[in-house]
Structures are given as C-alpha cells and as structure tokens.
Design goal:
Length: 92
C-alpha cells in the first residue's frame, strides 16, 4: 500500500514522496477539516471512526483550532472579563 501511495504522490508531483506516509495524509485531512470548522462528528466519520472518542484522542493536536474557536465563542458570549454578570440583571 505504501509503495502505491508514494507512486501516486510522484505522479502528482509531490516533492520527496518517500517522506510521506498514509498516516500523514489522514492527519492532514483531520487538520484541514478541523480548520474549516467541520464538526468532530463528521471528521470522525470521514476518517472511519465509529464515534468521536477515538478521533478526539488520536488527533487532539489537529483538533485544537476547533477547541480554540469554541473558547473564543464562549468569550464572545459571556465576555472575557472576571466581572461578567451571569444573571439577567446587568448589575449581577
């Protein structure tokens, strides 16, 4: 399989195809999908996992943009300051 994969890379004009592995392609796929905002459930299905647990565990570094974006969204919703009122009353 690796030989065929590298042969395809050569045909595609990829530099140094001997340095690439199928695993790197999967990791790149997860990174690109994650950076594009694809939900973790969809990414898990694309890479062949039956649920998100394995995807989250194996690809946690590649999923960081999703986690960071989620944290940014929470900051926008609730504010990033310590004095944010969580009740409906703006005075706290």
């Amino acid at each position: 399989m690796l030989r065929n994969f590298r042969s395809l890379l050569r045909e595609a004009g990829v530099k140094s195809p001997e340095k690439w592995t199928v695993r790197m392609l999967r990791t790149s796929c997860v990174s690109l999908l994650s950076a594009h905002g694809t939900p973790i459930e969809v990414i898990a299905l694309v890479v062949g996992h039956s649920g998100t647990h394995t995807t989250e565990r194996v690809y946690r570094k590649q999923l960081q943009p999703v986690i960071r974006d989620g944290a940014q969204a929470m900051d926008e919703i609730f504010g990033s300051g310590m004095g944010v009122a969580l009740s409906g009353d703006p005075e706290g």
